[in-house]
């Protein structure tokens, strides 16, 4: 596991401050191929993964779903033929938290 994936996710509440853009960009250096995107004024962490067929993309989606359930933190996953796009952000704080980067690192491990 990567060092980031080994971190423990911490519960965050509505009072938790989202990461600043500078903080998010610093954590982004720990991830490969992820990007920060903004939707409706909310920073999110997104990456697309490619697969040889739909079944492989679906199996990946299920594994990411299992990781999400264990952490109690759920991404948006769009599954298509040969592709799955995963987007993490912390809904409660309407932005990025360290948890999102931890779970992105764990998502990368599923794809390996």
Automatic annotation (TrEMBL):
GO MF annotation list: 4-alpha-hydroxytetrahydrobiopterin dehydratase activity
> Which E.C. number(s) belong to this protein?
4.2.1.96
One Pfam family in the UniProt entry: Pterin_4a
Top enzyme category: lyase
Top-level division of the source organism's lineage: Bacteria
Keyword terms: Lyase
* Catalyzed reactions per annotation: (4aS,6R)-4a-hydroxy-L-erythro-5,6,7,8-tetrahydrobiopterin = (6R)-L-erythro-6,7-dihydrobiopterin + H2O
Signal peptide from the UniProt entry: none
What InterPro entries does the entry give? PCD_sf, Pterin-4-alpha-carb_dehyd, Pterin_deHydtase
Report the family membership: Belongs to the pterin-4-alpha-carbinolamine dehydratase family.
Annotated HAMAP family: Pterin_4_alpha (MF_00434)
Task: Name it.
Answer: Putative pterin-4-alpha-carbinolamine dehydratase
Protein source organism: Vreelandella neptunia
- UniProt lineage: Bacteria, Pseudomonadati, Pseudomonadota, Gammaproteobacteria, Oceanospirillales
């Amino acid at each position: 596991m990567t060092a980031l994936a080994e971190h423990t996710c911490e519960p965050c509440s509505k009072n938790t401050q989202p990461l600043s853009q500078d903080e998010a960009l610093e954590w982004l250096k720990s991830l490969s191929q992820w990007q920060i995107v903004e939707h409706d004024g909310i920073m999110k962490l997104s990456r697309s993964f490619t697969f040889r067929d739909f079944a492989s993309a679906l199996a990946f989606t299920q594994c990411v779903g299992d990781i999400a359930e264990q952490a109690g933190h759920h991404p948006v996953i769009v599954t298509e033929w040969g592709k799955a796009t995963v987007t993490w952000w912390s809904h409660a704080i309407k932005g990025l938290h360290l948890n999102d980067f931890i779970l992105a690192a764990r998502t990368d491990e599923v794809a390996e």
